[in-house]
Design goal:
By secondary structure, the protein is α+β, with helices and mostly antiparallel strands. It has helices at 31-44, 56-63, 133-138, 142-148, 157-160, 162-166, 170-173, 175-180, 215-229; strands spanning 2-3, 6-10, 17-20, 46-49, 69-70, 77-78, 84-89, 113-120, 128-132, 152-155, 184-187, 189-191, 198-200, 207-210, 235-238, 245-249, 253-257, 266-273. The relative contact order is 0.25.
Amino acid sequence: MRVGAMQIKKAAGALGVDVTGLDLTRMAGDPGVTSEVRRLVTENGVAFFRGQTMTEDQYAASIRQLGEIMPHDAYGTTGSEQVVQVLESTPEKPTLIELWHTDMTFSSSPPSFTVLYADILPAYGGDTMWASCSAAFNALSDPMRGFLLSLRAVHDFRHGFRESLAAPGGAARLASVVAANPPVSHPVIRTHPETGVKGIYVNPLFTTHIEGLAREESGALLAMLYDHVVTPEFTVRLKWEPGTVAMWDNRITQHKPVNDYFPQHRRMLRITIKGDKPV
């Protein structure tokens, strides 16, 4: 597929496209570019924009065109407006996030889009994987889909950041974030507000249990769903390159960092865009 100077290539069968020839800084001055970027991400789950060169402020100004930037108080920020989140892993302080997840489902209105810009990359390793929650839902049997549509699950910030909370000084550092983010309930199957597509909306990082089920029932059902969502045929894997920007739709995908690069240094710049209440 080719649109003007932009070239688009499918990255995998279930989701993902590689995009070259598009300067994302054009979003700040051209609503048509923003509309096309939004379409690419919404229709494909995740888009990989190659060859980008942006300052932190240009990055924020461009991505802001997609909507209101949503903060995450557990991470440090950079740039003049302090809205670009820094996700960094160093030999002294390696990242603790390893599980498949959808971003910030502990929020009552989780982000619609997440954008990640490669700043410092390891010499090897450090890929990221995504899974299509809609492909996973569609592959279930009719009776199972019907059953899941009736259920809700609880998501909790404390569950996702339990290692950080347990670390020395972690509870004090994150006390305000915990207080601001009590457990929330979301449907197990979410309907995408723009496309109407349905997808599985539970994840092992933030989901604690399914409401109304016994603990053993909830645990067994969640374990099945977690394994099912990440079936290889529903996934895509990105090998990062300098200047790569990954942009994904949290309403219909999960993702996972591949932490096979320790003790190398990896620094990524993230922006999340505010979403709506899952239904």
